[in-house]
Design goal:
This protein has helices spanning 5-26, 32-54, 69-83, 90-108, 119-137, 140-143, 148-166, 170-190, 203-219, 227-235, 253-278. It is an all-alpha fold and 285 residues long. It has one domain. Helix 4 (90-108) packs antiparallel against helix 5 (119-137), helix 5 (119-137) runs antiparallel to helix 9 and helix 7 packs antiparallel against helix 10. The longest helix is centred in the C-terminal third of the chain and has 26 residues, at 253-278.
């Protein structure tokens, strides 16, 4: 299916340019540590929100449960830097994640009478999922300085959009694409930023954006794309932890980058393969 050039500009290039400009501006030395901590978080939210609005994916005032997603991402971007604050305690970090996740889930999970499993199960499951994902991703922002982690996060968002595309919900697929574009802009700036906190704070808005898009996509899809495809995609960046253990942790330079890029690619490839198989009936001749 060919996509209009305007959609590509609005959904990819514009979010990348805006996110890159925001993270560059907030990382200027004149803004100090606060600008550094909020840079990537604000950039992802700004880039995604712009792309979402340029594509006119929903009205400004939400009329359906899934239309609250951009506002949930904005909330997560405000709280996100607290999760990676160097002097913050774990209870404060986990509590901050949980509060944002609960608020987002309350609006994103619909109150349908025939929802299976029940709304309460969705609420608890999504909150635990997002909070756990954020807590596990946050330490990686300092372990992988430079463009590697944001590139992996951008690829993960793009893969999420592709899963939604295969599920025949193009409107939601553009949500993942716009997020990937914004993260690509952050990655471009991170390639020239040597600080270890260059993308600190981005993990919570990333988790809310991706897990939220996949949640509402799954709830509004009538395709046969399996649950595992939706669950695998957000977990892919966690495989970067493998690169911090054993012999892989001793790798440097290009070898380390290649290995650490391939690791998250495996679950993404599996998720996309299962999604593709789920949309095509298998015939045995």
């Amino acid at each position: 299916m060919p996509f209009p050039v305007t959609d590509i500009v609005y959904g990819c290039l514009a979010p990348a340019l805006v996110a890159g400009a925001v993270v560059w501006a907030l990382h200027r030395k004149s803004l100090g540590a606060a600008g550094s901590r909020f840079g990537a978080s604000a950039a992802l939210a700004a880039g995604f929100f712009l792309g979402y609005r340029l594509l006119s994916l929903s009205p400004w005032m939400p009329e359906a449960h899934w239309q609250w997603l951009p506002y949930a991402v904005l909330l997560a971007a405000v709280v996100g830097p607290i999760v990676t604050a160097p002097r913050g305690s774990w209870p404060v970090r986990i509590g901050s994640c949980a509060i944002v996740a609960i608020a987002a889930a309350w609006f994103l999970v619909p109150a349908w009478e025939k929802l299976e499993p029940s709304r309460l199960v969705y609420l608890i499951g999504w909150v635990v999922y997002v909070t756990s994902l954020t807590a596990l991703l946050s330490p990686l922002t300092s372990r992988f300085p430079g463009p590697l982690l944001p590139v992996v996060l951008a690829a993960t968002l793009l893969a999420g959009g592709m899963v939604l595309f295969l599920a025949d919900i193009l409107r939601f697929a553009w949500i993942g694409v716009a997020g990937a574009g914004a993260m690509a802009g952050i990655a471009t700036v991170a390639a020239f930023d040597k600080r270890t906190d260059a993308i600190a704070g981005v993990t919570l808005p990333f988790a809310v954006l991706l897990a939220g898009a996949l949640l509402v996509g799954r709830l509004n899809s009538f395709s046969d794309v399996p649950w595992v495809s939706y669950l695998l995609v957000p977990l892919a960046p966690l495989l970067l932890w493998v690169g911090t253990r054993g012999r892989l942790s001793t790798l440097t330079g290009a070898r380390r980058a290649v290995v650490c890029a391939v690791l998250p690619g495996l679950p993404l490839a599996i998720a996309l393969l299962l999604a593709a198989l789920g949309t095509r009936p298998i015939t045995i001749s």
